[in-house]
What does this fold into?
Amino acid sequence: MKKQDNYTFLTSGPIKKVIPTMAVPTIISMLVTSIYNIVDTYFVGLLNTQATAAVGVVFPVMAIIQAVGFYFGSGSGTFISRTLGARDVHSARVMASTGFFSALFFGALITVLGLLFLKPLSLALGSTPTILPYTERYLGGILLGAPFLTASMTLNNQMRFQGNANQAMYGMMTGAALNVVLVPFFMFVLNMGILGTAIGTVSSQIVAFVVLLVMASRGDNIAIRWGDMKFDERCTKRRIANEMFRGGTPSLTRQGLASVATMMLNVAAGAFGDAAIAGMSIVMRIINFVFSTMLGIGQGYQPFCGFNYGAKNFSRLRKGYIFSLKLCVAIIVILGIPSFIFAEEIIYFLRHDAAVVEVGATAFRWQLVSLPLCAFVVMTNMTLQTSGRAFSANFLSAARNGIYFIPLILLLPRFLGILGVEICQAVADVLSCATAVPLAWYYFRSLKNS
It folds into this structure.
């Protein structure tokens, strides 16, 4: 679809068609991103428990890298969708290029700083003495791909917010498909072990970056050009920075606190041994895979939200929110029931260790029970973020993995032992949902008065 067609489709097309059309390729993109983690976990699980735990220990760093990509991608993307909805193409072009080059620069900065402080960072992430050698090798390789991953996440989000989710999906799928081939090749054929996992993953990310960059410069997308960063009276540096902050900080908060929460979870689980870290590591990856479906629906809804908010079509925005929420809950329940029943088998498939399965299956079931409640959190957060409600969006983004999770992970294991680690995220999900519902009610009430 051309930009004019995107505008018409998003602002007047049938909601039951528009949102699934936007959501399906986005869900696939999110699942594809999760496949990177699942593939790494599976093949590393063939080595030993310490290597499996090391992948979990490094997960927060990958979350931080993704957080930077989401900051610039969502920060620029939400602005792009609103300005295209308001027919301001010039401002959208300035923001697109600014967001991309900023993501590339900060990704490179992460690489340099991470490699300079590799060992202290590995220890801070929760590595035990037996896990540390594996963590250093895996983390050192992963850090090399930071600029490509941050820039790829930015391009992916920008295309999605323009209503071109299919093209964003193709770029991400290319990298994931290659990852499935390259990881075992470097690990086992070249006998590089866990370092081969990192090299295979980074190589796949570089290819995905190239594909996305080519697609972003063709067809109906706003092309990325250095020369488009031409600030003027209508589109000043200050305005771009403010809009980037408003749209990007909820994603940065969400992803950044997820990283902190994972580090704290690893430290808490570490008190109960390497098997506990490995079990929780596997659960995080599986839940992230299921959670990606929910995020995909929410992110598919975002361009719909941005265009209609920019066009001041608030009644349609509300209907889209309700439809997306129902769709989200239905899909999570469908995915969650078989996962709950076969929890042990799923964990065992990824790591043949009875102690790992025992911890992982319990934690997995607790999180599956609370996951449908997260639909309210995700959909409300996406709505607030896309509408530029920075304070409310940031507060809700901080709730699940920060405001509620951090105190709980410090307290529950002290009183409940390993069960406190296993149920922590589920309890935080319940409290986050209780926070999201009144925020959504207030938001839509304020639109009626606009």
In short: The chain has a mean pLDDT of 83. The longest helix spans residues 49-85.
